[in-house]
Each structure stands twice: as C-alpha cells, then as structure tokens.
Automatic annotation (TrEMBL):
Residues 92-212 form the MurNAc-LAA domain. Residues 1-22 form the signal peptide. It catalyses: Hydrolyzes the link between N-acetylmuramoyl residues and L-amino acid residues in certain cell-wall glycopeptides. Pfam families: Amidase_3 (PF01520). This is N-acetylmuramoyl-L-alanine amidase. CDD domains: MurNAc-LAA (cd02696). It is an enzyme of class 3 (hydrolase). Keywords: Hydrolase, Signal. SUPFAM superfamilies: Zn-dependent exopeptidases. Its EC number is 3.5.1.28. It comes from the Bacteria. PANTHER family: N-ACETYLMURAMOYL-L-ALANINE AMIDASE, N-ACETYLMURAMOYL-L-ALANINE AMIDASE AMIC. InterPro entries: MurNAc-LAA_cat, N-acetylmuramoyl_amidase_3.
Amino acid sequence: MKHFWIVCLWMGFALFCNPTLAQGNRRQMVILDPGHGGVDSGAIGINGIKEKDIVLEVAKEAILLNRKLFGNTFDIYLTRYNDTLISLKDRTKLVKALDPDFFISIHCNQATMKAAQGIEVYVHQPKTTLNLDLQSKSENLSEELLSKFHKFLGFKVRGMKYANFWVLRDTQTICPGVLLELGFLSNMEEAEHSGRKESVRAYAMVLLQALF
C-alpha cells in the first residue's frame, strides 16, 4: 500500500494548482453516514482500533478538507457528529428530510481470514425498474470510489456488490447512495494504516475526489 501522507500532500498540492476542482456553479449536498457509534463499536481491529472511531474521523476530516482545500464545494452533513448510536431509521430520516445529491455510509470490514484485504462498495439492487437513473448514479459513484482508492492509495479492489442494507434500501428513491467498506480491520496491514491520522486524512481526501 502506498504511503498515505505522500499521497495527501500530492493531492492537496494538485487542488491548489487546479482551481477548477475547488469551484463550481452549485454546491452539491452530501450526507456522510459514519456507521455504528456508542455501545455499537462495529468491527474491532486486530490492533484494538474500533470501526466506529475510524469512520467518524474520516467523515469529520472530509468536512475539514472540504472547507480548507475544496473551497466548500460540497455542503456536507453527517448522520452523527460524536460517539453516539443513531438508529438506522433516524439515519435515513435525515436523508429523506434533506434530499441530498449523494449519500455515503462509511464502514470498515472484518473477516475470519486475516489475509482478507481491500475495498468494496455496496449499492442497493432495486426489485423494480422505477429507479434506474438513481441506480445508475449509485453504481457510477461506487466505481469512482473503487477506482480512486485503488489509484491513489493502492487498495486492492474487491468490487462493487449488491446488498439489501437498510440505509441503502430506505434511501434508494431519494438519491444515489452507497455503503463504503474501508479495508479490513482484521488484517494487520490495513488495521495499522487505518489507525494513522494521515491515513484518515487520505481516506477523506479520496472520498471527496470521487464525488467530482
């Protein structure tokens, strides 16, 4: 896996040198959903780090980078801003209330096989043909995330997958939405990377890049 801090510096420099990335005619609204929280720690890494902490740090870092490097290109909201357990219903209720341009639920993966590595992105597969446009946009966002995380951070691509997760199912008619799995905390290499501040910054940076 590439050195995250080098990637961050390079991408930050690229943004400052290319003002078209930080400007736009319209601020797109994005809701980031840091999974778990409170008594629900999510996956616990082989090194003791917790999924709920990593995903919240990534979401908060995205807000910070959006302001500092992207000229507030995006209007970003989080489903939780601290270590609190928010119900799935309340998470999707926010999406329905704000009607954003994109919804990204952020998670970390875990497996019994310690060698499992890589990034995967889930989208909801509708049972009808009523939401083909949103479905297509969700799949495009998924591919962008997979491509960017591989290109800039060297993540192994495990591909786009379909799932009936509540946060995807309950928002599929509102906006394009995906559930992002940021590597495996059960894998020592990826757990160690995810525990570093510069890695969190890199995750947030690439996530934002995928939205352009």
